[in-house]
Amino acid sequence: MSVLDKQGAKATAEEAPAAATASDAGQGAGNAPRPRPRKSALFLTLNALSIALGIGLWWALAAAGLKLPTPPEVISKAGTLIGNGTYAKDVSASLMRVVVGFALGTAVAIPVGFLMGWYRVLRSLIEPWIQFFRTIPPLAIIPLAIVVMGIGETPKIFVIFLASFLACVISTFQGVVNVDRTLINAARVLGAKDTTIFARVVVPASTPFILVGMRVGLGSSWATLVAAELVAAQQGLGYRMQNAELYYDLPTIFVGLISIGILGLLMDRLLLLAERKLTGWQERR
What we know:
The longest helix is centred in the C-terminal third of the chain and has 36 residues, at about 195-230. About 80% of the residues lie in helices and about 0% in strands. The chain has about 280 residues and is mainly α.
């Protein structure tokens, strides 16, 4: 028996009682009663209370003389826009641009971030360009994108793609480089190849970072969308808000703002749900 085998046998013997204790603890934890849903109900109640207080504050500011439309005025304008079909067209156009740009940006950012974190040579080649473009706001690229790509959908989707890509690629890269080296070394000692280590160790450990980057990228996508639709657009929530500005139509502007906030919140909650499903092994507060 080699020295490594003896050390492995010794380590196995020493770890056996600990493993048994952990197994017993796991069984005990499995038999423990699940927490009651009171916590979720409390959070939902607090959320509803927060929304009610926000609307009440908005109404009070409008009543105090600030140039703000009241909630009934905004609801009435939303009903008008929904009734004539304008609202559905604007929401569809904006949602399509965000979904396509965000999906493309994320799909490119994740493999690039993995490559940057896993291979030092590629990191040295790619990282300077990533950091360079991070200092340039995507909004500043809109004029160049319109000149090069025209006034169709391509430049709008491109700037959204760029915003989501830059946010997600950095998070993915950080997730790879922050993987505990002990886990990687342990997998190597057990004979795992690089592909196995990457799939079984690096990817799961990086998943929380990736999902956080996706959530940040989603917010950047919506912020970039409004600016992109202010130039050379015929439909969309941003275009509708800009058109309403020319006529001092504050209720329409508020309809656009609230719609963007609600759509962004719903998409963020979907990502948060995916995060909880994919990272159930993480301890949470």
